[in-house]
Amino acid sequence: MTLTTAPLRPPGQKALLAAARWEFAERGYGGASIRDIAQRAAVSLSALYHYYGGKQEMLYALLDEGMDVYEETCAEVLADVGDEPAERLEALVEALIRFRTGPRGSSQLELTEWRSLNPEQHTALRARQAVATDRFRQVIANGVAQGIFLTPEPDDARRMIIAACNAVAQWYQPGGTTPVEVLIERYAGLALTVVEYRPRRYRRS
Question: pTM of the entire structure?
Answer without folding.
Answer: 0.83
